[in-house]
Structures are given as structure tokens and as C-alpha cells.
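Give me the fold.
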Amino acid sequence: MFGRALACVVFSFARLCSTEIHFHNADRSIIEERLRASGKSNAERHDAVRALFEKVGCADHLEDQNVKHAKTPNVICTLAGSTDALIVVGAHYDFVDKGAGVIDNWSGASLLSSLYEGLKAFPRKHTFVFIAFTDEEAGLVGSKYYVAQMKKDGIEKIGFMVNMDSLGTSTTKFEMDRADKRLAHALVAVAATLKLPLSIVNVHQVGESDADSFEDRKVPAIVLHSITQETLPLLHTRGDQMSAIHLDEYYDSYRLIQAYLAYLDEMQ
């Protein structure tokens, strides 16, 4: 598929080839606790994702972005780097209330604060922008608004966009149809280094994701998910419950994404 990278992992850092990456992993119990904290409405989820960001220390760099035609705002947490080059990490927090919406997409939204927490302890080259998008289920409303209000020079500062949508039903997957090839190669290298499972499953034909809003503006992007032919029927049904999450695989996805973001920070 792609080339493998040999590396070592020691406590809070990993070395990929000649690149040393620094990050911190949260305990599994914390990741699971945050996953279980999903609200019963989109308004409750907005409050929950804000509370998680505040808990990990982002209160002074946290904002609500009111979105036209949406009842709830985007929630944006910024981790300043040494440059104004941006890496955007996104996940939508709204859900279809036929189920509990744990898979789609509290599984992604609840990780945003943990990923911020895992990166903030070390100096960063890029400025990371963690965004919990509103109204993805209504047609990518939150992410389309976010990119629409940015001027051209602001869009050009975004080096990469990593989107998380529907994790934890299986091992980590990524969408290849529209993915930036450089981002895909980097993800495969990190997964090989950490010996974590990863595979390609293209799901773009069965549904859009917030990465599309960025890709349409020529921003390099990638979608991380866990959907297979067998787990797809869980989405937008009563089957979307906490009991459908495979917690071992969900924590592996978190570990992979945490290291991946640290690696992307070192990429030019």
C-alpha cells in the first residue's frame, strides 16, 4: 500500500524516521468518560463540548461562532503555535435523534478536547484550531459557514484539515477518494510506527463530511472514521448507541490521531 516507517515509541514521544514528535496520551478511562458525556440534544452537546474544552485549559482561547440558519454555534478552541500556519481539526457535534448519536458523531466531537490537551504541553510550529461544528447533519452548515467567512489569505494559511466522523465501530479507517495524498501517506507512516491498525474504506458516496467544505476551497484534508459495510446501518438509527462502540478500537483511534497531529506539526 504505502511505505512503512520504522520508529521507536518512548513514553510521551515517538520518533518517525528522523522526526521526533512530542505529545501526551490521556488515560483510557478519561477518554471513555468523555465519550459517555454525550447530551440528549444538540444544545446539550454544545454545552458539553464547551465544558470539555474549558476543563482541559482552553477557556481563554475558546469562542462560539454563531452560524447563520443554525440554532447552535460552532465551538472553536485555538492552540497558538510559533507561526500563523494553521492545522484545523474538526468534528461535528450535532446528531440525528433516531438514536443517541454516540457514533455519529459524539465519538469525534468528544475527542477534540483530549487532542488539544495532548498537544498543548509542548511547543508547536503550527497554530491548531479545534472546531466542533454545528449542523453537519443539515448539510454541512457549520463547516460551510466557517470557510465562507474566511478571506482568501485566511484559507491559504490552513496547511491541513483533519476531520473525525463516526469513530469506534471498528479499527481506524480513512477516506481515500478525496483525501490529500500527503496526509494519507503521513497517516499510514504513523500507524505503522505505533503498530496500530489502519485501512482504507471510502464512504464519500454514501454521505458527505465536514472535510468537504474545506476540500471545496482547495484545503488539503482527510476524513478519519470507522465505518464498514457492516457498521454503516447503525448510523441514523436506534442502533447508534454507546453499546455499539468498541472501546479498545476507539482508544486505539484516539492514540493514532494524537500522534498523527503531532507528526503533522513537523511537516512543512
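The domain at 24-266 is CATH 3.40.630.10 (Aminopeptidase).
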